[in-house]
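pasting for the record
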Amino acid sequence: LKIFQIVAMCSELKLLDTVPLQNKSAINIGIIPSDDSQYCILVEDGIYVFKLCGLMDNFLKTMSFMKWFIKPGDFALSSHLGIDINSFITSLPQFDMYEAVLRLDLSEELKEASPLKQQPVQAKWSSLGLVSNNNCVLAAMSNTGALRVYAFTTNESEIEEFIEVCNVTEICVRYFSVKFFPTIFRGATCSSLFEELKKRAGIATPSAFTWTHLISKDDEVFTFLMVGHYDGGVTVCRIKQMKNNETFCDCRVVGYFQTHLKKPTFMHWQQANDDGLLIVGDLEGRIKAISVTQISQESVKFENEIFLWGESDGLRTDCLKVVVHDKNIYVLAVKGSVLVITLIDESGRVADVYPFHVGDFIITGVEHYEGNTILVLTYTGVLKEVMLFNEENKIKIKWRHLFIDYKWWSHRTHGLIVSQNRVFIGVLVSMSKLTNIKKRKDHVRLLVFMNVAKKPLQVLLNNESNTLTSYWDCLEVLRLNGLLDRKLSNEGLSPELDYDKMSLVQLKMCLALAKSSEVMVRNSPVMQTTPTLKSDEFKYILKIRLAMDHMYRLLDRLANGGQLSVFHMQSLDLLNAFLKETVAKGMILRLLLGKLTLDGLYDIIATASELKYPDPPVCVWCEEKIIGLSCVPAHSDTRCCISFMPVTHLPYYKCKFCKSTVHVKLTDVYKTMLCPYCDIPLSYVGRLILKDQDSHPVEISVDLRKANCKSDCVEESVNVDEVEHAFTYLDTNELLDIIQISDDDNSN
């Protein structure tokens, strides 16, 4: 029986990929997920940001991640406190001078000291939607207390990067300098100056922070960044929703509260309807929950403080999580090798506290799996599945080991993530035994394990959200696992699918699976295709359905007495012409569509044909009128994949995954700009918006007909639109298997 249990546990997690990083880990819990499937990894030199890129035609046996690196900028908090430590440090008593040199928040600007390296120690993602078009922003704090906010931008050259939009520490210091910092009088002694400097540093230096949920009041969308300081104070910074490509954010201090804790080390926000619960853990081990009410743009109210753990046990709080299940609120606090579980009843009182000892090694990851189940990871690679129960207001737990088949005798863990649909688990590891330094340049690596207990195809088929936005982890696991096991991604789909009755999200799923399966068949002659449509055919069906959906939206606006701009009327004319051509060519029968689609086509074509349209747009390349999907004679151009209108100006939207382009004027029709094929938020391509600059999008002409060609220009026709990515033109039959350097190279 024991042997059977071990075999069952071994089969639950399957290693899919090892992602190497050329850096060392910065902290024990060093990987943080976001609500939009991004993961930030804290290393010594900065922050890596990973995002699944949904490249379904990727034939490599690796996870399709996009990767960015954020290097912290230089900011010395001590130089903004109003007291120059260099003017008196040599006159300080011996132990005071030692303290001044050793404290990072005081010694940044010492003239005779070596420059201090900025190293991230904490990072958190905001709620979804703080940036227009449903994007998150990242806040990160360095070892010197510099707290910055980073946002993702795409400039006019389509260069993507995270840029600093706000220095929260600097804003807090300006607030404190007016409210708390007294005037320094002439003749003050060195000791009194040093004491005043320490006091100011204690008030101003951030030691922990957390985001609140997104709040919408008085037609304004904003959030709060709760910043904890060394002296136990909490500063409330309001940050308004940002527009795409803004290089700044509206950040302002609107409140302050003293918790009377000693150096908060971790903070967590739990939403409670329109209010919230702020949970703070400190260096001495105490944990306090504070109710926050009466939230508005200009203020909040702190009340009803309770201790979740009032004992100063000397174990700092490294992490806080909240699990809500069956009206029970479980607060999870990581304190070294102990997971302190606190049960809060419906009245808001502490019903029970349960310290769960995981072993002799510290906890490096805690994640909510589903329901009342959490996953706990320790430093030595031990993963435990813990189930929480409330029996008569007493915490009861059941737990078991989840065996991870890996070489833990030479590795140590630094973080844990669980994908949105629980189909893969990521573990951040580093080498603890370097047998060959030349081969081990990548000090940190992310291990990606498939959760065999979850069937990704079944999760996709049970999708009721009408969007693929949060289901790309399932598609990526199907692709990668299919390549490893020589199994088609769409294996398991019924060969008798009724495409006529399928929803848009089901068609998008079939398109992605078909694209992945075709790549597998093309690169492995042994594999055979399944009897479903090809990816090009699925894309054509989607093009028909998307055209119909967009026309319904425009015609509905007209039917309700609204007006359409010339752009939308021209688009309606093009879409109508496309649908007429589709019917005339007999594409409905070729694509195995039936009466439902045909009736919808006839109805919408009849309605659209009764309208009077303006003159069609003129192509900037051939100067002919645009009357279809391509000009006559045909040439390459950039068209909006929803409206079919030409995209000739900045700004515009572009998909990170499939590179589809969408016209910026469609924001009149859609609140959130999602890729019509991938369902991910589109990247806004345009000039970066600087502070004090008009944030309204300005169309920038890219009319190449009027551009003078340089004398050294090679007159050669290049179709840029055909080059989507490097994999397209590779002859994979001539490629050798790419073998990454992994832990299997005789490391003992």
